[in-house]
Amino acid sequence: MATTTVHKGYGGKAQFVVLGSAARAATQDFVSDDFIVPYGKALTIIINITAGAATPAVTPRIVGRTAAGTQYTVLVGAQITSTAAAVVTMRVGDGVADVANLGASIPLPATWFVRMTHADSDSLTYSVEAEVR
User: Fold this and answer.
1) What is the C-alpha to C-alpha distance for residues 9 and 47, in angstroms, rounded to an integer?
2) Is the domain 3-132 a CATH 2.40.160 member?
3) Is the whole model's pTM more than 0.90, yes or no?
């Protein structure tokens, strides 16, 4: 995987695409690049679902990576099974409320990525975006 460093001004925000919009229809993990956001304190992941077929089952995860390459789960979202248009938001970082499958009040990892685990081959069209403050 490639590593992308996203720069933001002190106290500012950065917004960027993590996974572009696409119909994904395979039983596998779709994994973003690694992201590093210097001075990032909190991360918001926005999953924008625009279309689906049959009964998709996709579990989103925010995963941290250590300097030695060890992966660790930061937050596991609830399984997405809707075929209707929807937006799912997950948050991690300072000042974030602890909410099952949606928020974790833990420090934002220095390096992180998003893993979307598809449990079946039913198509789901979505994009994943991020905002870091």
Assistant:
1) 25
2) no
3) yes
